[in-house]
Automatic annotation (TrEMBL):
PROSITE patterns recorded: CBM20, GLUCOAMYLASE
Source species taxonomy: Eukaryota, Fungi, Dikarya, Ascomycota, Pezizomycotina
Class in the EC hierarchy, top level: hydrolase
Pfam family, one: CBM_20
EC number: 3.2.1.3
Protein name: Glucoamylase
Signal is among the record's keywords: yes
Keywords on record: Carbohydrate metabolism, Glycoprotein, Glycosidase, Hydrolase, Polysaccharide degradation, Signal
Family, similarity comment: Belongs to the glycosyl hydrolase 15 family.
Catalyses which reaction(s): Hydrolysis of terminal (1->4)-linked alpha-D-glucose residues successively from non-reducing ends of the chains with release of beta-D-glucose
PANTHER family, per database record: GLUCOAMYLASE, TREHALASE
Amino acid sequence: MISTSFSALLAGLVTARYASATSVSDFVTQEQAIALQGVFNNIGANGSLAPGAASGLVIASPSTANPNYYYTWTRDSALTLRMLVDELIFGNSSVQSTIDDYVSAQALLQTVSNPSGSFLPSGLGLGEPKFNVNGTRFDGAWGRPQRDGPALRAIALIEYSNWLLAKGQKDKVSKTLWPIISNDISYVGQYWNSTGFDLWEEVSGSSFFTTQNHYKSLVVASQLAAKIGQNCTSCAEAANALCFLQTYWNGKYFTANINLNNNKQRSGIDANTMLGAISVFDVAASCTHPSLQPCHSRSLASFKVFVDAFRNATLYPINANIAASKGVALGRYPEDIYYNGNPWYLITQGAAEFLYDAVAQWKHQGSISVDSTSLAFFKDLYPSAKAGDKYTQSKTSHKKERSMSQVSARAASDTFQTVVTAATTYADSFVAVAQKYTPSNGSLSEQFHKVSGKPLSAYDLTWSFASFVTMARRRAGHYPAYSWANETVNVPAVCTASSTKGVYAAAGAGSGGCTSSVLFVVNATTYYGENIYLVGNTTDLGAWDLASAQPLSANNYTSTRPEWFVEVQMTGGEYVKYAYVREENCGQASIYETVNRTLHVPACDSSSASSTSAQLATNDKWTGSVGSSGSC
Ligand code: NOJ
Ligand code: NOJ
């Protein structure tokens, strides 16, 4: 009996139509379970939709064509893992083994040489956005490096570490987690001020989402380091990153991307800034905290500008005739042309999460302050709002007022409740939009069509599912308990563009012996998308295995001198055979040089294991045939 009705219930769950007949609350309950399962389906080695994915690696989507998202992205994975760590904190202990698999996988992935660079000596490979699902490097042309990845991964691992510490597992944190975190934080401290590609992998410059996560990662790393007695030299860059973060404000909203390398003209209105605020959310932080929380006036102003950009029936026909007080379907940025530009589930759901976060912060503080910056946002919720208003949460509303001042305090507290209720209703109306366009089986793609509302682009997108779960948790009033931004912080009066040289060491490997640094330089004329690697007979040169070869950089490449180079830490005194290899852009066979090169690595002095400049440089010229683009 029981099992029959239970399976009937399950069947109902799977076939439920998310029509408007289902309440938002019922929809959220049903979809939350489907979304969490959807995430597990996309994680190796046992995920049902992730064949071939290594243990602990998260695929972006099972879609292998149009688009092919069958890769593991550092950003998507870290955001997904943050959701899983939250689930662990909320008491779902069954997720822990998956988190541990992720930890082991990332320790290894950090060391994989790739087109962004190698791991040693300076961490460049950590900026690589995506890898093949078996953990090997991806050689195709791509918008790289993307510098948010290491910060997001560090935050995920730090949130897990804090949970472990609370359970008394300091040893595991110090020995297993910290070495991985330390590499990522070294990267952030070294490159936070260098340009890179934004989270949408399109523009190269400085990106708000990236900088905001850089700041958070440096702060939470220094807090963790203090708890476990470790040094975090790179963490000192936090104040500089925080100062830089403020500079994205243009007087009306946070410009998503600045310092652009290739001058693409855009408004800078972008989900980037809303997603950043969600990422740094701390329910106990003040609304004026310079980490720029969801309830910060400037975050609220940016949110309104962003949402209003999509209240445009020409841009998104499905948003026609929706009142200004109601949620609309939201995309990445108004100028988006990817798949002709459409709304995204994770962004529409993200808007709801942003509002639930702000509401939680107002309630935590017991007040809401309106200023001229946030006024337009508040007017949508409460038309008579004025700059300078402060609404305070009632503590005495059920008692009898005895004086006029208590009566007016009561009025202000009613207003507090009015605004909170309006903001919550507004948040729910974004969920209702997602509900309307979620298909009956609960699958969440990347996008839904701006005219028909039909799911579009990659199906079962892990990030769409993860964002649903975090939104549902915030809606239910569940926040990560660990508070990080509740201290008073001063933004430096003058911003300093500095960098701290990182210390990188393979986590979990423990390499001994002393090394000498060799700079390999080769002149090789290449076409756009083609890469050069170095491979040789020793382990530091990949033992003739291309998957472990060293990637060369084209940073010094000019038409008159087509230079490729890489600096490699090599075992002192060894004799090596090596060759350069061309990696083609569309999976054509790699092209090896037709010469056998040899080299004697200089002996090293073990007392100065960390020499900073190369002790030997080669001056090679490509010998062998050249490649041509596969035009894929
Ligand atoms: C793939 C990227 O992942 C996506 O963000 C981008 O919009 C398209 N390429 C087009 O550049
Ligand atoms: C394209 C998105 O723009 C990017 O943010 C994401 O990392 C990849 N797709 C994979 O989901």
